[in-house]
Amino acid sequence: YAQAREVYLLAAAHAQRAKAFFVLDGFVTDHFIVLQRESALLGTLLALDPDANRRIAMQKRRIALLEPPLAQLNEKAYTQIFRQALFDVASIRSEMLEAKAQMHGSEPAPRLEAGVDAY
């Protein structure tokens, strides 16, 4: 994990420089590509982290990367990027929910599974 963290820190520094160059106002597509790659870096790092609380914190950081630009983005002009970012945020939240359920040893309610199976 320590070696992976060092690689992540180096890559995150490059991502920060890329975000400074590809600002959201003017380089929307490129900015979101950088955000998605930084989120993927965190996702890879959290898969290697043995600490469950730190994994949850990394998931929250991934959400914090992707959500704020959505408020500034015109959904009609950038439909594909907007939807992809929403999907990514929803996937991260789903992973967080699963991780928290595993931490607390709880299973989903049976009625929820039955409702999902109906579709």
Describe the protein in words.
The chain is mainly alpha-helical. The chain has one domain. It is built from five helices and no strands. It has helices at residues 2-21, 28-48, 52-72, 79-104, 110-117. Helix 1 (2-21) packs antiparallel against helix 2 and helix 2 packs antiparallel against helix 3. It is flat. Pfam families: KBP_C. This is KIF-binding protein.
What would a concise description of this structure say?
This protein has 119 residues and is mostly helical. The chain is 81% helix and 0% strand.
What are the key terms here?
5 helices, 81% helix
DSSP E strands, number: 0
What is the overall shape? flat
- Largest sheet data: none
Radius of gyration: 17 Å
- DSSP helix fraction: over 70%
Based on helices, strands and strand pairing, what is the structural class? mainly alpha
Structurally, the number of domains stands at 1
Mean pLDDT: 84
User: What percent strand?
Assistant: under 5%
The termini sit apart by 40 Å
- What letter string, H or E per element, gives the SSE order? HHHHH
Number of helices: 5
- Low-confidence parts lasting 5 or more residues at pLDDT below 50? none
